[in-house]
Amino acid sequence: MASPGKKAYPLRIDPALWEALQRLAARDLRSVNAEIEFLLREGLARRGVKIKEGGAAKTDTQNEADEN
Question: What separation in angstroms does the CA of 29 have from each of 5, 34, 54, 63, 66?
């Protein structure tokens, strides 16, 4: 069951990738779900997408437009 306020999404994933995620999650003391969410946020941040908790995503270009 999904946490309140979170979107549930079924994910088909390669078994080898799943095993790597399990190892990484265990190393970081996270669940696999939390690890996937962490990695997605990290990847978006590298691309300049800022996420507000419970809010919409914005790119750096959109943030600059909001500031002007």
Answer: 23, 10, 24, 33, 37
Single-letter amino acid, residue 33? N
Question: Does residue 61 fall inside a structural domain?
Answer: yes
Is 8 inside a domain boundary? no
Number of CB atoms found within 10 A of residue 22's CB: 13
pLDDT in tens, 5-14: 888 989 999 9
pTM higher than the cut 0.90: no
In a domain? residue 52:
yes
In eight-state DSSP terms, residue 49 is E
Q: For 10-34, what is each residue's pLDDT tens digit?
A: 999 999 999 999 999 999 999 999 9
Report the number of distinct structural domains present in the chain: 1
